Amino acid sequence: MSVSRDKENGQDKIKIQNYIGGGFEEPVSREYLPNFNPSTGFDYSGVPDSDERDVEKAIEAAKSAFPVWSRTPAAERSRVLLRIAELIEASAERLARAECIDNGKPLTLARNMDIPRAASNIRFFATAILHSHSELHQTDSTALNYTLRNPRGIAGLISPWNLPLYLFTWKVAPALATGNVAVAKPSEVTPMTAFLFTEICREAGLPDGVLNVVHGLGGKAGAAMVNHPEITTISFTGGTKTGAEIARVASPLFKKLSLEMGGKNPNIVFADADLDEVVPASVKAAFSNQGQICLCGSRLFVEEKIYPEFLDRFLALSRNLKVGDPLAEETDQGALVSREQLEKVEYYVNLAREEGGQILCGGKRPESLPERCQDGYFFEPTVIVGLSSGCRVNQEEIFGPVVSLIPFSDEQEVVAAANSTPYGLSASIWTKDISRAHRVADEIQCGTVWVNCWLLRDLRVPFGGMKSSGVGREGGEEALRFFTEPKNVCIQIPR
Ligand code: NAD
User: What is the pLDDT of residues 6-41, one digit of tens each?
Assistant: First the structure.
């Protein structure tokens, strides 16, 4: 690890390195991008400003590792991956702190969600390959067809900043488990835990070149990956605009694409829901990770009959959330990930005012913050009422601690409103009426519907979005299939 002196507080400033062919490398350009700690606004580490030359080196390393790794028995691939999962667990506190500092999320969240999930992702796919099977189709008594599922080669894995290690490993694990090699690019906004992860991979004995991590800008290092003819599989999670650009470039090259993109998820509360359960769960759905989870319930539809009481209770809990230093144990809400994201949220809150909305909670940067957080990118949890379902604030993804409450009077009306955005990632429905739950779940246009819960995850289920939220599915069998190429072998049965 290369270090240089940090001007402000005398600590070592970590220069993150690319991980290519099992070694740590400077970018060819020798240029580094700043990496800001969102809770202090301080540039605390350097991110390699990689370009197509670094991607080329990573591809060469991946190519030389492929023949051996793809033929390594599944049990051996599994063993190495399980060792990585163990090492993530052994370094959990260090990784959680790194994630908290790099992303601005509360340490408690990184500790309880991000890092355990990263280990689970690796463990899940490390064991899935020991239990998977492929199909056999018998053609009457004349032939047997069996399906081979071979690794596709070099996978390009591109991940976002909101759940950095969690989503990075969600791609790395199935890609490597199925025998592919990978060139991966974490978000340039939150590169730290992916860097620490590469140290873990090395320690775990992952063969050189199987995973190569190139850090840098999406439009430069990311675009070079998408353009490169030898990366034939691209798994991307990020914004819808970026996904569209990746599809534009990759489709004519006939790459296999998985795109997990933005959301504007409805959280629908019917009058028969249990308020003691649904109010705290809706606060969590709105504000977890400062509202920067693609699955956050940012449009909160509440049946008119219970709207006044729901609103009172929802406001009370939202006002109670403690915004503060993400490293402090009592903090509920940390910093937004970047100044750009903070400004985006402020833009939308101002737009809400222009569109006729009332801000009943938050709507501004917090006034009292600890001294070291004065220049951080904090924003109060914000509750907006009085906006129509069709206005921009209720149609466009904000991706911050902002929720809009919308009363409704009947089921058809709320289903139509829920389906009215270009997005289709997830939805929650709260009701005791099981028939209604089935009916509404069937009608909502999205990839995941939660009934009387939110963000309850089982790694075996298909995960992804429809409409502008995604193409393809991740998770379980879907991921194993995505990262392999099916080949049918037809054997005639001699008479
Ligand atoms: P982003 O699209 O800006 O960046 C995501 C990744 O793509 C980064 O690594 C970035 O460097 C890279 N990238 C950018 N331009 C590229 C290009 N032209 N070619 C190749 N790579 C490029 O997204 P973000 O701001 O990091 O993340 C927030 C977005 O991610 C939100 O819209 C959120 O909803 C979405 N998201 C979706 C899911 C999901 O599962 N559907 C999960 C998490 C986040």
Answer: 444 556 688 999 999 999 999 999 999 999 999 999
The answer to whether 188 is a known catalytic residue is no
Determine the Cα–Cα distance for residues 57 and 17; give it in Å rounded to an integer: 14
Q: Is the CB of 399 under 6 A from ligand 1?
A: yes
Single out the residue of 58, 365, 282, 42 nearest to residue 185, CA to CA: 58
Candidate of 187, 255, 396 to mutate for ligand 1, largest count of ligand atoms within 8 Å of Cβ: 187
Asked if residue 254 and residue 308 are part of one domain, the reply reads no
Q: How many CB atoms lie within 10 A of CB 416?
A: 12
Catalytic residue among 294, 296, 361, 373: 294
Q: Known catalytic residue: 294? A: yes
Q: In CATH, what number is assigned to the domain containing residue 114?
A: 3.40.605.10
Pairing of strands 42-48, 32-37: antiparallel
Q: What angle do CA 107, 1, 43 make, to 5 degrees?
A: 55
Residue 453: give its domain's CATH number.
3.40.309.10
Q: What span, in angstroms and rounded, lies between the C-alpha atoms of 418 and 408?
A: 11
- Prediction pTM value: 0.97
In a domain, residue 56? The reply is yes
Domain encompassing residue 394 = 266-458
Rounded CA separation 173/377 (Å): 32
The C-alpha atoms of residue 4 and residue 12 are separated, in whole angstroms, by 6
Per-residue pLDDT tens over the stretch 145-181: 999 999 999 999 999 999 999 999 999 999 999 999 9
Structure token pair of residue 362: 């938050």
